[in-house]
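Backbone geometry:

***
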Amino acid sequence: EVQPVESGGGLVQAGGSLKLSCAASGSTFDGYSIGWFRQAPGKEREGISCINTARNTSYFADSVKGRFTISRDDAKKSVYLQLNSLKPEDTAVYYCAARRGLCAIRAHNFDFWGQGTQVTVSS
């Protein structure tokens, strides 16, 4: 089974950018849709983006639409989330997750999760 591994988080000023990576360990992402979620302290886990196996459709939550982009490179067994125009309210632990088949929005539809990477945006 596949094990997602996130990297790329850090501390950035408001208006800055970060690129998060989600690498496949133990297998590949072939046949999996990959979702990105985030969870801030005291808040529920929020689905923010997803890219399906064919890369021809993706999803963005309204809170990040126009600022975040998602891409995947199956040759490198990785999915990327580009975070632009960051705001303090984007501060959270960011997770990537994998599921067979098409994209989904809710966390319970994903089977394999990474450990998360912290993104902190200072004002």
Observations:
- The chain has a mean pLDDT of 94.
- The longest strand covers residues 92-100.
